[in-house]
Amino acid sequence: MTTQQDVRPPDRYVSLFGDLMRDVREQGLLERRYLYYWTQIGLAVAAFAGVWVAFFIIGNSWWQLVPAALLGIVVTQFGFLGHDAAHRQIFASPRWNAWSARIFAGAFAGLSFAWWRTKHNLHHKAPNQEGIDPDIAAGVVAFTPAIVAERTGFAGWFARHQGWLFFPLLTLEGLNLHAASVQAARDKTSKQPWRRTELAIVVTRLAAYVAVLLAFLPLGKALAFFAVQMAVFGVCLGASFAPAHKGMPIVPPEMKLDFLRRQVMVSRNVRGNPLTDVAMGGLNYQIEHHLFPSMPRCNLKRARPTVRAYCEREGIDYMEVGLFESYAIVVGYLNNVGLRARDPFDCPLAAQLRG
Q1: pLDDT digits (tens, 9 = 90+) for 177-203
Q2: Which of 28, 46, 109, 241 has the most CB atoms in a 10 Å sphere around its CB?
Q3: Could you tell me if residue 28 is left (phi over 0), alpha (psi between -120 and 50 degrees) or otherwise beta?
Q4: How far are the Cα atoms of 18, 75, 112, 270 from residue 69, in angstroms, in the given order?
Q5: What would the pLDDT profile of 134-159 be if each residue is shown by its tens digit?
Q6: What is the pLDDT of residue 351?
Q7: Are 177 and 78 in contact (CB under 8 A)?
C-alpha cells in the first residue's frame, strides 16, 4: 500500500537530490583537497619504494614473503588512488585526473584505466540493476536468483556454497583484474582513447615485475612472492568492494527509480575508524560516494551526517553496519541467493515509478 508520506508530485522526487546537493555544496565538501591527496600520493610512493628496498636488502630468503604481502597492500592503495582520479576527485583538470589514473592504476597497480572506467561507469549508472550493472552479471559467482536458476551439476553446487568460497576466490581476483585489463587494452574494436598507451604501460609494468622477481630470486621463492602479493592484492580490493552492494536489493531491469533512491537504497555503508577508512580506500562510505562520485575521499565521512539525516527526514532507508556484519551479510546472501525467492526491490516509490 502507498502511504500518505509517499504521495508526492513527481517533481518532488526530482528535487530531492537537488536539495541535498545544495546542502553539501554549501558545506564546501565538493571542493578539491590537494594537500590531502598530495600527502596520500607521497606516502604511497614512499611505501612502494620502501617495499622494493626491503626486497633487495632481504635477498634470497623466505622472509621475502613479508614484503610480498606488504606490496599487495601498497598496490591496493594505488588502485584506490586510480579510482579517485578516475572519478575526478583529485584535480580540477579532467586531463590531470585521467593521466593520474593511468599512472596510479597502470604503472603502479597494473590495471587498465579505460577498462575500469567503462565497467565502473555502468555500475554507477544503475547499481544492482539486472541487465545494466556489470558487477552483478553472470560470472564465476552468481549474484541473482535468475543466474543461479540456470546452473546445474557442479555449477549448481558451487552456487549453493559460493558464499563460503567467495573470500578464498578473492585471492585470484588480482590475476583476473590484470588479465581483464590486458585483454581490454588489446581490443582493437574499442574506441577508448590512449588504448595502446595504456596497453604499453600495463604490459611493461607486469613484465618488469616478473623479470625482477626471476632475476633476483630462485624460481620457487619468486613464485611464492608473486602468489602472496597477488593473493593479498585480490583480497584487499575485493574485501573493500564486496560490502558495498552485495546482499542489498536487486533492481529488476524494467524498474525506474529517482537518482537519490537508486543510489542510496541499494548501497551499504560500513562503520569504521581511521584504519578502516584507509584499508577500504573510503569505499566504506559507499552511499556518499555513489551520490557524489567526484567528492574527495576524505570528505565522504564529513558528508555522512548530512546525507543520513536527510534520508531519515525523507523516509529513505540508509543502511550502515559494522565491518564483520557486512561480510556476514555478503556470505549469507551468496549462499542463499539460489535457495530462497528473494522479493524484487519493493517500495511504494518504486511501484509509482515502475514503467
Answers
A1: 999 888 877 777 667 777 889 899 999
A2: 109
A3: left
A4: 44, 10, 22, 24
A5: 999 888 999 888 898 889 899 989 98
A6: 43
A7: no
Can you tell me which residue has the cell 515509478? Answer: 353
- The residue behind cell 579532467 is 94
C-alpha cell at 298: 576524505
Long-range contacts of 190-198 (CB under 8 A, 24+ apart): 190/114, 192/114, 192/115, 192/118, 193/114, 194/102, 194/114, 195/114, 197/102, 198/102, 198/106, 198/112, 198/113, 198/114
DSSP 108-137: IT---HHHHHHHHHHHHHSTTBTTT-GGGS
Ordered DSSP codes for 230-249 = HHHHHHHHHHHHHHHHTTSP
**Which one is predicted more confidently, 350 or 123?**
123
First-last CA distance in the chain: 18
In SS3 terms, 64-105 reads as HHHHHHHHHHHHHHHHHHHHHHHCCCCCCCHHHHHHHHHHHH
CA–CA separation, 243 vs 47, rounded Å?
A: 27
152 and 85 Cβ atoms separated by less than 8 Å: no
Report the alpha-carbon distance of residue 353 to residue 355 in Å, rounded: 6
pLDDT at 73 over 70: yes
Cell readout for 74 is 601498497
